[in-house]
Amino acid sequence: MTFLYKADPVRGAEWAELFAQKASDMPFRIWPDVGPAEEVRYLGAWLPPDNLIETFPNLEILFSLGAGIDQFDLSALPEHLPLVRMIEPGIAEGMMEYVTMAVLALHRDLLPYIDQQRRAVWQGMRLVTSAQRRVGVLGLGMLGQAVLEKLRPFGFQLSGWSRSSRMIEGVDTYSGVSELPLFLAGCDILICLLPLTDETRGVLNAELFAQLPRGAALISAGRGGHLQQDDLLAALDSGQLSGAVLDVMEPEPLPVGHPFWSHPKILLTPHIASMTRPETAVDHVLDTIRRHREGLPLIGAVDRMRGY
Ligand code: GLV
């Protein structure tokens, strides 16, 4: 009945402590100290090991320790093995803070003001009220919905787009490829929180930027693979986009000398928008194990066909 943890060992030690408190009857091990491999029933991994099923023949649930699962090769995982993502409140909270910070920074022209400060320029810009500012979220899963809820009290005009249709109070929602142009045309600030799949790779490209209002800004906090980097540079240079806050990159870290490092219209952070929080993640894991034992549907179970 062992739970095996395979990711950063420092955080693993925190998980071990929480398991000792909350599930003292379940042996907890940190990779590479796997113990008897046939006893491993649950694996929590950022990157799963090769030969997963040969190595752990009695595995019952594979947990991704992140919100995303794009780092997993789904074709290498047996169909019967549930793969569960971290649908846990700790990740949502970090993302709500990060995106709120980024929206306010773009709304209040922080990037040009930082640039002006570097050049010792003291010059104010016209204030746009939040009621005039249209903020849209691409991807309305746990994170997209949490972010919209946090943004609501500021009074922005909020909208959201998702693959399949969703209703969210106080938010204009759009769905499917056919409604994407209408959604994009109404986004002064676009926030990308999509999962990375074959369908969404490279979606933040010239064609999409051209459909935003001129001077719109971008927040990219899902995965680096969404962004066509050259297209972003061109859109910033032409003025089609006015700024970008980027937390995710491909590859990470961004290579030395890359133009994003010093671009005055780009604010870059090193994939820190949000992280799985051990306290809440362990609750999610233990709840999932309980549900699995009781034959209930698993929250955060990945649909192999959709790819998230
Ligand atoms: C981080 O990027 C995550 O997937 O949780």
Short description:
The chain has helices at residues 9-22, 52-55, 89-107, 110-118, 142-151, 176-185, 206-211, 229-238, 278-293; strands spanning 2-6, 28-30, 40-45, 61-64, 83-84, 134-138, 157-162, 172-175, 189-192, 216-220, 241-246, 266-268.
- Give every kind of bound small molecule, once each: glyoxylic acid
Q: What is the count of structural domains?
A: 2
Strand content: 15-25%
CATH class category of the largest domain = Alpha Beta
Strand order of the largest sheet: 8-7-6-9-10-11-12
CATH level 4 superfamily of the largest domain: NAD(P)-binding Rossmann-like Domain
Structural class of the secondary structure composition? alpha/beta
How many helices does DSSP assign?
Answer: 9
- At CATH level 3, the topology of the largest domain is Rossmann fold
- How do the helices and strands follow one another from N- to C-terminus? EHEEHEEHHEHEEHEHEHEEH
Helix % is 25-40%
Give start-end ranges of low-pLDDT stretches: none
State the end-to-end CA separation: 27 Å
Largest sheet: 7 strands, parallel
Rg calculated over all Cα atoms: 21 Å
Average pLDDT: 97
How many β-strand stretches?
12
**Corresponding CATH architecture of the largest domain:** 3-Layer(aba) Sandwich
Shape: elongated
